[in-house]
Amino acid sequence: MRKILVVDDERDIQTLFEQRFRKEIKNGELNFVFAFSGEDALSYMKDHEQEAVLILSDINMPGMSGLELLKHIKEKYEKPPPVVMMITAYGDNENYKLAMQLGADDFLTKPVDFISLKEKLKAKSV
Amino acid sequence: MQLSIVPFLLSLLLLRRLSGFSKINDNQQWIRWCSYARFFSVFLFLGGFLLSNQEATRWIWHIFLISLLLFSFQQNEMRPLRMFLMAFLPYAAVTLIKDLTEVILKDFYNHWNNYFDTAFMLSVIWLFAILYSQNRQNKAAEKERIKRQKEDEINRAIAIRKVELEGLVAERTAELTQQKDELEHTLDELRSTQAQLIQSEKMASLGELTAGIAHEIQNPLNFVNNFSEISNELLDEMKDEITAGNWQLASEIADDVKQNLEKIYHHGKRAEAIVKGMLQHSRTSSGVKEPTDINKLADEYLRLAYHGLRAKDKSFNVTMKTDFDERIGNINIIPQDIGRVILNLITNSFYAVDEKKRNSPLTPKGGIETTQNLYEPTVTVCTKLIIPSSGGRGAVAQISVRDNGNGIPQNIVDKIFQPFFTTKPSGQGTGLGLSMSYDIVTKGHGGELKVETKEGEGSVFTILLPLKQS
To answer: What CATH superfamily classification does B287-360+373-470 receive?
Structure first.
């Protein structure tokens, strides 16, 4: 089962995603797992190798930041590294450049446009 | 001729003394008289040569000398010279008597010739003795006079110097007064600058907050927007299910909507609290103590400080830990002021760990295993209720902010609470944060602000607030 790993320190993001994509989840089109910190995300990926093909991460989190997580993932998972999309409230140029340098596949700013995200997710995870 | 040179010399000697004395006393009349007499004397002496009649000039000499002496003797101006004049008198008298007797009583004179000679000799000896002693006295007097003159000169010089000095003193005093005025003016300016600085310190910390606040509000607002949008969609779905008669599904959707509304409410409240906090911070302190949940206050400012710094420096990251003692409950404080203290301590901690991270030789590498060796910047905020076992002081609320930064060197730890002391590069810190914090805690709340630090390991700032203020 191909999964999308959502990483954000706001726990309500889970409810939000589950409701936003309730039809896709019901249909089995999309499958979400949630982690509430960069560290959580890494340990999940260690335990479930290659299960997550798409990672959607917040940048601004206490502890390991989204950018550090991105770096870890892109450096460590050599095989086909999962697609990583960054989401941040700080949509500044510096963050964008850094994320792209570290190998992010996409860069979204909050508030998230869920319609375009839906299309992107469908395209990338199929 | 032989005889006329003696009275001539004597008259010159006498006149010299008289005129010298008159010059000292600045007696113009006597100086004039003396010069006339001197002319007369010279004239008489030369006349004696020309006439070659020694007899005639001899008598004129006698009259001249005797009258000169008697006249001087009578004058009050010449009183100090009486002793001097007395030296000449016997000589003049003896020579006169001698000459008179020689002319009038020739036999008597010849008979008593020896006595006349003896008297003459005595008068000459008397003359020289007196002159000698007078001369000595004069020399001593002259010395004394010169000495006095010198003293006078010194006194005059001193008087001049005194005037100069007084002038200088007056000048200096004027200068000092001007400087004093200038200093007072500068002091006033400094006072107003300090007031401005305190205000700008407040505004600076507010500036640090605004970015954090914007971010903090953005998140709950996103949730409010998203959940209300979804709820709208869910209600449409619910209607469909009701129309289709699927009551079970409709009820499930209703539960979701209810849950969403709760979340909307929750996030709305969250935004409200942030705005309230911001207003509280920017508002001038009311100075009024009110029951405040210190845990909530600390948590709020921790988040705001974090996002504030994040907004300024994108690479900034820190692990924040909290350990709140829920037993504290509400305590009576001025929330804006204590909030400012907490914010200041947290901002300082963030600065400290960020500095250490920047200077850390280890850069993060991939893989979770290596993170153990890496420096992990951590700031911990703890609250604790301390109830003393035995009486004495009452219960105390302790708020501590701990960081694992570089710590504070021992040589400056004593200065950190001093106004305007800062270790930040110039322009980055006002040096007022900790001194203001110290005043707020100690003067404003009767509490204590303490610091423990170990170089290279970190610092702990602890606020102690008595629950019941005496």
So the answer is: Histidine kinase-like ATPase, C-terminal domain (3.30.565.10)
